[in-house]
Amino acid sequence: MTGGYHDRLLGELLARAFGELDAATLGLLREQLAWVEVAGGQTLMRQGEAGDSMYLSVSGRLRAYVGQDGEAPRMVRELGRGQVIGEMSLYTDAPRSATVVAIRDSLLVRLDKAQFLHLVERHAGIGIALTRQIVHRLQTEHVAAPFAAPVVQTLLPITAGVDLAGFARGLSAQLGRFGRACVVDAAAVRAAVGDGGDHYREVSLWLDEVESAHDFVLLLADDAPTPWTRCCCRHADEVLLLADANSAPAVHASETQCLVERPPRTEAAEILVLLHTTDAPAPRGTAAWLARRPVAEHFHVRPSQAGDMARLARLQARRGVGLVLAGGGARGFSHLGLLRALQQHGVEIDCVGGTSMGSVMAALVACDQPLQRVMDVSRDAFRRNPTGDFNLLPLISLIRGRRLRASLDRALGALVGARAGIEDLWKPFYCIATNYSQASEALLTRGPLEQALRASTAIPGALPPVVVDGDLLCDGGSFNNFPVDVMRARRGIGLVIGADLSLHKARKLDFDEVPGSWALLRDRLRPRGRRRYRLPALSAYLLNVTILYSSSRRRAAQAACDVYFNPPLERVGLLAWQRFDAIVEQGHVHAEEVLARPEVQALLKP
Asked: Which of 101, 307, 327, 386 has the fewest CB atoms found within 10 Å of its own CB?
């Protein structure tokens, strides 16, 4: 069932997982392991059933699901090479906590509980080593990426005009920065095993040998649903659908015959990669591509630009850098200062998300334009107070919102053009809104970009809400003003940078009751230093009270960041729109201070 290459790989994986054990003890552990083959689509274990063994994944890919009675199971993690599965069953009699299904044909080793107890009696170090594995997993569970890096990636052309070999060379070179990478096409298979592309077992064993010697294997499928293309799809951890962005978004025959109708049915994620020319303007029409296929993610790539290929490689290697920007009115200009500092330190951002004003700044980052242009466009777009158009008859909001809409139109029009969709941005982007109709947090990843930003910034009572698909949406700060958790769960993200705008200095009041309107008016007419009642203005009060729940989640969000920024902006008002350059500079100075720390430099080292 297995070859020498599987034995070599198993030895490497055991040494990596239980490195503190000596060679003799590792050999003893290895003798108790049984090889297990799981076909794509087959269930390894079910939630709730008795647990009597643990597994170590040697090759292939699996997915873990959890669910309550009457609810559809939800995916919680993908499991790749070298990951331990079900180890808690060796210590407890608790039932399995998740259902684990093979995404593709997978090879594992199993250690039964009886053999484990026998080993522990003879060598306590084995139990200690496994216990450390469990403790480490529990300690890092809240920050671990839910998607393991795919080892085998199939490149499947779904339009004409795709330079498959050239794309594979470029991606392989970039993936080579993170491990051993190779490219396999039909010619390589014929050279190795003869003209046997339709003999799946023979080809599969050879591919297993290739996989055991590499960290990344790129399988180049044919441009038609041939036996080799079917083999590539069945053997893949993930399938990259490569399409010329200028072609029609019709579904290709290979998608239908090798993915939808493939036997047996596997669950490998499909990633749409739209290929653009070097001088292409901002993407358009992405929604039509996505509407025709159930992809897990999509990326825009200009193959001739090394930066785009490097970004794709980082995301596929699960080394992507995600930037999360919190809301905070005009304080959000400080995010541009942070971006300047990150660029000066050579830190590339691969995915960006945010809430309220943070969502606006995040969208500008996702446009992937030169920083100076982003600065100039932002300064021009917000040169006129965007919250200064008050309603004479405030039935739904104090502010009409027309100026803010005009500011967004100017900025987006200059950087990505009019009527862009979220899915049309060069870099992956998301923003958070509050669904008032459903009383829930709304994650916006598709649809009109300008509409999504207006929804994310529509502070309840201050700015008018936005109707999206029949629901009333407003400012996302009510639920999640600093959406680090969303970024942490994104496919491809390995490091999360967060910029928080929360203020932490509490100020006690020296009076017992809030005065009446006339008393407050008289007090506000006095010079600032002689005012008696230091109360927020109505607009500031409304802006701050909407994010109180989000503020209560701040500590968890901060802990989920790998690098955390929180510029001191206590003296900057939420509506200080006229202080653009000063706020940008404050964000830059703070970012430089954080980036100078040795532990941060070690994390961000290329």
From this structure: 307
How far apart are the C-alpha atoms of 498 and 566, rounded to whole Å? Answer: 8
Pair of tokens at residue 290: 């996505």
Which helix (H) or strand (E) segment is 597 a member of? none
Sign of the dihedral through C-alpha 119, 124, 127, 129:
negative
CA distance 533 to 597: 41
Q: What is the pLDDT of residues 437-481, one digit of tens each?
A: 999 999 999 999 999 999 999 988 889 999 999 999 999 988 899
Cβ neighbourhood burial of 243 (10 Å; 0-12, 13-18, 19+):
buried
Q: Does pLDDT of 76 surpass 60?
A: yes
CA angle 502, 505, 508 (to 5 degrees): 130
Q: Which two tokens stand for residue 439?
A: 């009383």
Extended beta strands in 113-245, E state: 152-157, 181-184, 216-220, 238-244
- The token pair at 606 is 């290329």
Q: Which residue has the tokens 């009115």?
A: 329
Question: What is the pLDDT of the chain when averaged over all its residues?
Answer: 88
Contact status, residue 506 vs residue 578, Cβ threshold 8 Å: no
> Three-state SS for 410?
helix
Do the Cβ atoms of 387 and 330 come closer than 8 Å? no
Answer yes or no: is pLDDT of 66 > 70.
Answer: yes
Angle between helices 4-17 and 200-212 (to 10 degrees): 40
Where does residue 530 rank: exposed (0-12), middle (13-18), buried (19+ CB within 10 A)? exposed
pLDDT digits (tens, 9 = 90+) for 22-32: 788 888 888 88
CA 318 to chain centroid, in Å, comes to 9
Position 489: which residue type? A
Say whether the peptide bond before residue 264 is cis (omega within 30 degrees of 0): yes
Q: Residue 411 is which amino acid?
A: A
The pLDDT of residue 141: 57
HEC letters along 433-463: EEECCCCEEEEECCCEHHHHHHHHHCCCCCC
Phi (first) and psi of residue 65, to 5 degrees: -125, 145
From the CA atom positions of the chain, what is the Rg in Å? Answer: 27
Question: Phi and psi for 538 in degrees, rounded to 5?
Answer: -55, -45
Contact status, residue 272 vs residue 285, Cβ threshold 8 Å:
no
CA distance 77 to 60: 14
Q: Are 119 and 28 in contact (CB under 8 A)?
A: yes
| C-alpha to C-alpha distance for 87 and 96, rounded to whole angstroms | 10
Q: Using DSSP, state whether 47 is helix, strand or coil.
A: coil
- SS3 at position 385: coil
